[in-house]
């Protein structure tokens, strides 16, 4: 066992013990960030939910009740009505028997602490980027279940781009989503940042929290490989900052048809500055230190590695790694000016469904971490708020996948059907810029296809890719 193995084992044991006390710590976990709990967001004592109250009450107008005590919060539109109908028919939201895993800490720890277990078959590609850095794409190629459904009427499976959390840990949550998506006829691919999950760090540069430059090149490559297939994207937890930054920066040039975020961290700077409940803060921090320890020598010329590995908080770690660099130091304010995932959110032109829980112990209560004005004012953003689910949990009975996975795939199906119906009625050449309140039409669906015979040098900024 490596030197840090014993410390990690003790920490995980402490976190697991904390999870076993979840019923008593449910309110404590929500108060740990210093904000009052939500009325109706707790456990079985809040059954007065039947009169329409609950965790979304404080969000004012624009909320719609759904099965299982969930609420859809959005700006009224034709697409919102279509999504609402689909969610009301969803069997995944129907309340089932109460599980011993219903506590927020247990739901969270089950995905982040327990081993991922046997997952899908992956085929990895390494992409060399413009600055000679490498990112990895893990294509899910099996196992292929019998009776696999095709998601696109044209016969080509839709590509599902999955972005894990910002710490680089491939969780049970991500692998479960990929397995379910493959079964439903999608072609999943997992994006790994520089130095994450076995991707070599060949240049002394890591990807900042909300910098989508590497993701842009990866999406361009995916589009080249599958020019006629619809492209959807899903992000997990802190990885949502990368996806939202991409959608905001690309705007109408995005190749994506739809996107979804599971337990997204939306107010990222405040999240770093407030800190997490100590077990999660220490766990995520330790994971990052272990992941970067193999690159200590490579990073010595760019950052103060001694200070980096002595960091006592996620903020100190992030600030040392990306702000206090030896070559180009910047302030904490300047860092977030370029990495806030919502900095260009008004430019996003792709529907985004955010699935959040009122008992999330990592993000905190909704009135603290959710920018509700975004969902009330922007017709492209939808918030599905549940009473329970923890952080990236949303568990059901042991043999069933997380209900968030089912809902996301149903949401993508509803988007596809809605766009196809609208285009059949209005015609492909009409109203490309005015589906929601006069804004840009869904050009993401029918981008000009790239000829397979085109030169790679004309399309990509990198010169070659590595495959294993």
From TrEMBL:
GO molecular function, one term: short-chain carboxylesterase activity
GO CC term (a single one): extracellular region
Signal peptide from the UniProt entry: 1-22
Subcellular location: Secreted
UniProt entry keywords in alphabetical sequence: Hydrolase, Phosphoprotein, Secreted, Signal
Disordered: region residues: 36-61
SUPFAM superfamilies: alpha/beta-Hydrolases
Keyword Aminoacyl-tRNA synthetase annotated: no
Highest taxon, organism lineage: Eukaryota
Main localization (coarse): secreted
Task of the protein: May regulate adipocyte lipolysis and liver lipid accumulation.
Family as reported in the entry's similarity comment: Belongs to the AB hydrolase superfamily. AB hydrolase 4 family.
Subunit field text: Interacts with PDE3B; this interaction regulates PDE3B's stability and expression and, thereby, impacts the antilipolytic action of insulin.
UniProt-recorded name of the protein: Protein ABHD15
């Amino acid at each position: 066992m490596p030197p840090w193995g014993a410390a990690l084992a003790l920490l995980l044991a402490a976190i697991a013990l904390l999870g076993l006390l979840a019923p008593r710590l449910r309110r404590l976990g929500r108060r740990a960030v210093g904000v009052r709990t939500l009325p109706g967001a707790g456990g079985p004592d809040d059954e007065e939910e039947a009169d329409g109250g609950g965790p979304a009450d404080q969000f004012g107008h624009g909320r719609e009740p759904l099965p299982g005590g969930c609420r859809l919060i959005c700006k009224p539109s034709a697409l919102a009505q279509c999504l609402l109908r689909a969610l009301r028919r969803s069997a995944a939201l129907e309340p089932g028997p109460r599980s011993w895993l219903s506590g927020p800490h247990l739901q969270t720890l089950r995905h982040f602490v327990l081993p991922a277990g046997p997952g899908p078959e992956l085929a990895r590609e390494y992409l060399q980027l413009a600055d000679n850095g490498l990112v990895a794409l893990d294509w899910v190629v099996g196992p292929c279940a019998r009776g696999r459904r095709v998601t696109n009427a044209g016969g080509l499976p839709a590509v599902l781009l999955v972005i894990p959390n910002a710490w680089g840990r491939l969780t049970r949550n991500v692998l479960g989503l990929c397995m379910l998506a493959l079964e439903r006829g999608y072609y999943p691919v997992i994006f790994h940042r520089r130095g994450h999950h076995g991707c070599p760090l060949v240049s002394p540069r890591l990807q900042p929290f909300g910098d989508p430059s590497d993701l842009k090149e990866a999406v361009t490559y995916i589009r080249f490989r599958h020019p006629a297939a619809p492209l959807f994207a899903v992000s997990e937890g802190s990885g949502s900052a990368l996806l939202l930054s991409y959608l905001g920066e690309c705007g109408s040039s995005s190749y994506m048809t739809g996107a979804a975020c599971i337990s997204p961290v939306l107010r990222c700077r405040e999240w770093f500055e407030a800190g997490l409940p100590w077990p999660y803060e220490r766990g995520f921090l330790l994971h990052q230190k272990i992941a970067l320890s193999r690159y200590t020598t490579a990073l010595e010329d760019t950052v103060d590695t001694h200070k980096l590995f002595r960091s006592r908080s996620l903020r100190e770690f992030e600030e040392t790694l990306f702000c206090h660099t030896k070559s180009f130091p910047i302030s904490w304010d300047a860092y977030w000016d370029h990495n806030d995932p919502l900095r260009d959110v008004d430019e996003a032109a792709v529907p985004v469904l955010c699935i959040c829980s009122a008992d999330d112990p990592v993000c905190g209560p909704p009135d603290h971490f959710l920018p509700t004005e975004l969902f009330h004012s922007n017709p492209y953003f939808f918030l599905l708020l549940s009473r329970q689910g923890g952080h990236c949990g949303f568990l059901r009975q042991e043999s069933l996948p997380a209900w968030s996975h089912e809902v996301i795939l149903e949401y993508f199906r509803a988007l596809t059907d809605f766009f196809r119906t609208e285009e059949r009625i209005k015609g492909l050449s009409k109203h490309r810029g005015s589906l929601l309140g006069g804004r840009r039409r869904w050009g993401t669906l029918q981008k000009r296809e790239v000829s397979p015979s085109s030169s790679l040098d004309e399309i990509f900024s990198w010169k070659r890719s590595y495959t294993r």
